[in-house]
Write a structure and sequence with these properties.
This protein has 5 helices and 13 strands. By secondary structure, it is of the alpha+beta class. A 6-stranded antiparallel β-barrel has the order 1-2-3-6-5-4. The protein has a 6-stranded antiparallel sheet with strand order 8-9-10-13-12-11.
């Protein structure tokens, strides 16, 4: 009796890959892309015990290359976010202000063009929308940290001279009106980097690096003093309206 039941079960069982064939058929007929949006093929191995803010800073970071008059005019950094079905990049306004073309460069040298949908020169914050969803950059849910607690740990990822993805850690050392002062490290090319707290919430955007003159000639970068635009100046309703109007 047992042998009969076993034969019956084997006879009625579908091949091991039958479910995959069904999915492939559905995908072919409906033209659906069932692959995950984020591909971590080019992501470096991160410390599994690192804070969420550090990981999010790295995984969502992109290079922003801008052109004017057909020539490269500069570069900066930014980070990729999602809000519902919308995908957008936050960067500094001065990185993209007055430019003709904006290219978003991901890990693995993948690139796509983007356009500005929101810009505030006063607060130095800009919102970009890429022409297509990014592939090797993780779109994070947009969450803000507006408490600005002195001494809290912060993280940002910049691209100094386009030499890869560089994570910096530090603390929020002070505030002055709508400007955050960070004790961390940054270099030209880091402008536009989003600043995260330990839990992955957004505090602000790297806006300026203090420079002092050495004997009045050569600039000296003071790595421990960084100014960042406060994310509180980006009104949530203004962001939603900008993304809605872009469609």
């Amino acid at each position: 009796m047992f042998r009969f039941l076993l034969y019956t079960m084997v006879a009625c069982s579908q091949p091991a890959n039958a479910h995959m064939e069904i999915f492939d058929k559905i995908n072919f007929e409906l033209n659906l892309d069932l692959s995950p949006e984020f591909n971590d093929e080019y992501s470096a191995e991160l410390d599994p015990y690192a804070s969420k803010g550090l990981k999010d800073s790295y995984l969502s970071s992109v290079v922003i290359e801008v052109s004017k008059g057909g020539r490269t005019a500069g570069m900066g950094s930014g980070n990729y976010f999602r809000m519902g079905r919308d995908r957008f990049i936050i960067t500094a306004a001065h990185v993209v202000d007055g430019t003709d073309k904006i290219m978003i460069i991901e890990k693995g040298s993948a690139s796509t063009e983007a356009k500005v949908v929101y810009m505030s020169v006063e607060t130095d914050i800009a919102i970009l929308v890429p022409e297509k969803k990014l592939r090797y950059t993780k779109a994070l849910p947009f969450r803000r940290d507006i408490n600005n607690q002195m001494g809290e740990k912060i993280y940002h990822t910049g691209h100094p001279a386009r030499e890869g993805w560089h994570i910096s850690a530090g603390i929020l050392s002070g505030t002055h009106k709508d400007v955050l002062m960070l004790n961390s490290f940054a270099w030209p090319g880091s402008s536009g980097s989003v600043v995260f707290d330990e839990s992955g919430r957004v505090l602000g955007v790297v806006s300026a690096i203090r420079m002092d003159a050495i004997m009045g000639v050569f600039p000296q970068f003071i790595e421990h003093i960084i100014l960042a635009s406060n994310i509180k100046t980006l009104d949530q309703d203004d962001l939603k309206a900008a993304l809605r109007d872009e469609k």
